[in-house]
Amino acid sequence: MLAALAALVASPAARTAAAQSWFTPSFQPPQVSTRDFTLGVSANAGTAALFQWREGIDANSHFGLEGGLVDSDGSGGTKLLVGGSYAYQLTRATADQPLALLFTAGAGLAVGDGPDLFRIPVGVSVGHRFALDGGMAITPYVHPRLSLDLVTGVDDDADNTDLSIDFDIGASFEITRQLALRGSLVVSGGRFSDDVGFGLGLTITPQGLRSAGLRTARR
Questions:
Q1: Which pLDDT tens digit goes with each residue over 80-105?
Q2: Domain limits, the chain
Q3: In the 8-state DSSP scheme, what is residue 22?
Q4: At the topology level of CATH, where does 2-12+20-218 sit?
């Protein structure tokens, strides 16, 4: 969902300079979380530092909160990124059905220098977890999202809303059950953003909570 929080308009002329917009990937593999924390960075028309917190509601759903700062390469300056998300496990991978599907929805706001941007993205993360030797694992996934975008603080009478599509191609590499590296390429298409970005994240899952979550999911 981070693309929903980090997208911004880099100048008041964003309608004619969509390449100046900026966004981040979601870092969301297709598994519900009991609790995890992700520290991430993203580079695309600027740099961002991000923090995500996901907290389980039950065996099939979690909510998330996130925040960060972005420094745009253009004239947009620095913006604060805040938002929240919800996820629900639609399917888990089985021998007969190898893909896990996670429904996601959220809302995010980028505020600061220049126009502000509010986004409401809805999507599905799809992928499969492959166990590796030594307790490691890798989960490649795709995470397409449709977002309603609203820009404020633009001094003209043009329409300030747009429907855009964000598409993540990512992977989560579990070094241990408690530590994972996440990387993602994100492609965004819309009137307020039309660019390609990349991000890297480090995810920490507390050991006791991870074990409890696995036991709950198996019931």
A1: 889 999 999 999 999 899 999 999 99
A2: 2-12+20-218
A3: B
A4: Porin (2.40.160)
